[in-house]
Amino acid sequence: MRIIVCGAGLVGSSIARQLASENNDVTIVDQSPETIQKMNETLDVRAIEGYASHPDVLEQAGARDAEMIVAVTQNDEINMVACQVAHSLFETPTKIARIRAQTYLDPAWQNLFSRNHLPIDVIISPEIEVARAITSRLNVPGASDMVSFVDDKVRVVAVSVEENCPIIDTPLRQLTELFPDLHMRVVGIVRREGIITPGGDDQILVGDEVYFTVDTRQVQRAMAAFGHEEKEARRIVVIGGGNIGLFVSKQIIDEIPDIRLKLIEVSRERAERVADQLERAVVIYGDSLAAEILAEANVKEADAVIAVTNDDQVNILSSLLAKREGAKRATTLVNNMDYGPLVRSLGIDAVVNPRAITVSRILQHIRRGRIRAVHSVRDGMAEIIEAETLDASPLSGKSLHDVKLPAGVIIGALARGDEVIIPRGDTIIETGDRVIVFATRDMVKKVEKLFAVRLDFF
User: Fold this and answer.
1) Could you say which of 202, 225, 248 is where a domain stops?
2) Within this chain, do residues 8 and 86 fall inside the same structural domain, yes or no?
3) I need a surface site. Which of 13, 207, 255, 351 has the fewest CB within 10 A?
4) CB-based contacts of 339: which residues, under 8 Å, 6+ apart?
């Protein structure tokens, strides 16, 4: 697949790296000569210096033959114009743009991005995506990650395994005997910063982060099986009143009627603006690293603290201080994934990375076959994929025994109409089934082929 990536920042470089590793023909465009030199030296891509919105630069990047353009520069207007130029001059089939300014996304202007105006096929707002990711974690107390699939019929949940977990050192094949009516399957284990796709003889250890699929109606039972029976948060403190903090607060207030929410913002002007937009929240002007401000917010009684300022170190330290004061859980926004292992070891319960979330949304539209959704795990070490089985795909009409999935691939759940099936060896996959797959990075291409129409895959 020939793809042009506009912008070589954290998101653009991550997308380019992942696509290049899967043998796609990737060209990346950026204004910085230093960045372009680095891309040429470190990635198997073609890197071009220039303005992504300029026709001559896009032509040099191969826009006439490209199947997709992904515009993720820091400038919304450049992203929009790049997509317009790619459409009008080069007839690029698929155009994806990251847009951060919310005025463009106001429902009042919903026709702006129609084919007759600004022809952008997929618009991604990192702020909105991050807000959704955070609120989804709040819906499953105790989860370090949670993603919904198949119209929320199936969820994939990640939990940290602590010493009180009842199933430590238990072979996974015995879970069916222990919980015969629980529609759940362990599909991935993060251990010592490596990914394991477990077999029946593998065991769960203290310190693991476990990913499992579960029928949405049984999430609470599944969490209890791992020793997590936390109550839903009702007293929440949000640290940071930027776009993400504001969206998170609005979404929480809209979804939880009896919520008690306080927000801390270090800028007086911004605090006043946020207070005008959050009628059911208490907005506190002050520094979240100051003990008196945390006391004013009463973090010691908080069920959850959500740190989403634009400074990773402030988020991390604020979360740690809040937990030391007595906050039950802390969710922390971290842009620099080098902090990830450190943050988890310090006791922060959930880490949210805007880059990983944005990359997941983009990958959803790049994957071939009938791919419906994609969620990237641990900066691309693995992916959780929702796909639809086509009539002529290699899976259709076969049992899991017959399919013989490659190592590194686990089918965690099937959705057939309103029925959720946790597959066993004799489960037959039917045409139209929505299948949830956990796959390590090097196996993603094989998963795509499983859901394509080629009959010669095996």
Assistant:
1) 225
2) yes
3) 255
4) 312, 316
